[in-house]
Amino acid sequence: MAEYAVLLCILLLGILFQASCERENEPWQILIQDPRSGIVYHETSVEVETVITLRYRHSVSKSPVEGTFIISESGKIKPLTTTYSSYGPGLPIDYAESYTLEDGLVTIYHEEEPRDSIRLWVSPQTEETLFINEQEYPLAALEEGHLLLDISVRNNTRDNKP
Length: 162
Description:
The chain is an alpha+beta fold. It has helices at 2-25, 156-159, and strands at residues 28-33, 40-46, 51-57, 64-71, 77-84, 98-102, 105-109, 117-122, 129-132, 135-137, 147-155. Strands 6-7-5-4-3-9-10 form a seven-stranded antiparallel beta sheet, with no helix packed on it.
């Protein structure tokens, strides 16, 4: 009977260890929240090197814009690329950074340092949508009018400890 108790303890320890390892693979949470009210609209787990994509329609040129970012090992958001077909105010144009021009699309490859968050205004007119792990988050649909949002990363293991 004692042998079964030992085997049961080993089995339980193995299960707990596996669950702990799985949590270590996804120590980060992406938060989409209103920085003024603190309302969290979405929260989802991500791994290091998860690529997130932000798509929207430029408010002046009315053309589509796509930005890609990656979650760094330190839990920051690193800009990777910005792609657009028509320049509009606020879009990167400094070609000192590397870029490509293919099929009418300009893709800027960013050399910026990772940042703590992405802060942006969203509205139904500009149709901002965030893509994380093949999940679509229609940010512009969160409110009828304009809404200020922060997209940031939180550490699960540090922030959830008592």
